[in-house]
Structure formats: structure tokens, C-alpha cells
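The protein record quoted in full:
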Amino acid sequence: MTQNRFLVENGDLGERIDKYLSELLENQTRSYLQKLIKDEAVLVNGKTVKASYKLNEGDEIEITIPDAVLPDIEPQDIPLDILYEDEDVLLVNKPKGMVVHPSAGHYEGTLVNAVMYHCHDKLSGINGVLRPGIVHRIDMDTTGVLVICKNDAAHLSLGEQLKEHSITRKYRAIVHNNVKEDEGSVDAPIGRHPIDRKKMSIQPQTGKNAVTHYKVLERFGNYTYVECQLETGRTHQIRVHMSSIHHPLLGDTVYGPAKQPFHLQGQTLHARVLGFIHPRTGEYVEFEAPLPEYFEKLLVQLRKR
């Protein structure tokens, strides 16, 4: 069992407890949290409450979540765009719309399902049953190069390189508005959004260190084609950082405008380059994923405007 404790702050006053907990605990559905409240697994100031209970400042919430029974993740014969493979690592070009690893209620059609079919039992087990071989991830609607580790030694090596920020990660993006500087950097800590906890935001006091370098590749008046290089790897880092300087990613309705004229599926963000020290040879290797077709067509369209 897992126990979590929360102290209600001023910004959450009057919110229903089930809604409040669903925003804090991303992996739990609101209906499941309502069941826990009904089963008296949630206490407020040491007492049971109803799901409709509205929060007061200083409320102390304790929630006990039973240990989950992990489902069997089934291998699925899903085509992979393989950029490189050897006995230690597998580099794939992830398509738009594919989730990297399974999560509650979403156990099929992920990259992990596809990789399990391709690699059979040759995947690192460090990240557990739901994330075999997964060292890092990219968002569902972000495309591009991703590395999967086929054994624990490779996973430990890549994990340490990620921790030390020594892995090369270059992305291509199209952002709103004209980026005036040819290049620049955003150095701003990122943490959970104080109100909408499913989003990230700039948090100067409580956020984790985050640095993104960007340079302009092409300008199209109201839009700019840029390359972003990550120095750190926080959740939604490029999306949050570019939005913070008034250049949200085209198609990103979470951190940018709700409407855009191109009928896109999510943000225009592509992991173009991934480079690291190979865990077996000790040599630096670099892999590149070509831009997806939709991205190329969009660039052609913007050049004609």
C-alpha cells in the first residue's frame, strides 16, 4: 500500500476533494478516487468524508492507495521504424499519436507493446513491468528518435548519461510568432502547475532546473521554424519554455492557442537527433530521424504563404 499526505493551501479552497486528488494523482481516475473515499481510504484531518467535501485551508488529507496488481503487458505485432539496432540498444523513430509505455487503462498499442514483440525477452528490466527497456520518453504527439535498452548494463549507462545531461538531444519545432533573435536560451525551472496539475509551468521557487537552447532555422512571418537543444529533460520542457517566451509550439493547445488554421494533431515537435556514448564500445554515436511527412508538408505550406 502507498500512503500520500497533502496539506491544502489557499489556492485550493472550496474545491471538491475528489477533483483535487485527481489533479494531484495523475495515474488515478476520478471515479477510482471516489471509490477510495467511499471505502474510507481517504481521511481529512483524521476523519472520513464524502467525495463532495469542499476543501478548507489547512486541511490535512491522508489517502491510502492499495498496491496495484500489475497487468500482463502483451507483445503486439506493431510495425517499428527502426533506425539502428545491436545487442545493447534499439533506436526507433516514434510516430505521432503513439504512447511510449502503458499506463492505467491504456495497456495496448504502445511503443512498449511493439518493442516487446520485436525484442522478445531481450529488454532491460530496471524500469519494471510497464516500462521494459524505457530510459526516457517523448510525448504522444511528439515524433522522432527514441532509444530502448536491451539489457540492464546499457540501461544503467544511458540512465547515468541522462542524469549528467551529457546526451545530445536536438528537436525541430514550428512556433507561433516571429522569433527575432537568431538564437537564445531559456533557463527557467519547471514544476507542476499550481492550479492545473496535469500541466507543467515555470516555477522559480519550487521547480527543477531546466535549460533549453534554441536557434532559428527559417522564418515565415507569423511562424518560425526552430531547432531546440535540451540541456535538461523535464516533462514538457520545450513546450513550456517556448510558450514562456511567447512562442508556443504550433498545434499545442495545452500551452498555446486553442485554434490554428492547419488542422494539426498536437504540437509540431520532432526529436531529430539523439547522441550518446555507446554503453559497450565507449564511443560517441549519433542517430537522426527524418522529419515526418506532415511536418515536411507543413513547411512547404508555410513557405508559400
User: Anything to note?
Assistant: The first helix runs from residue 17 to 24.
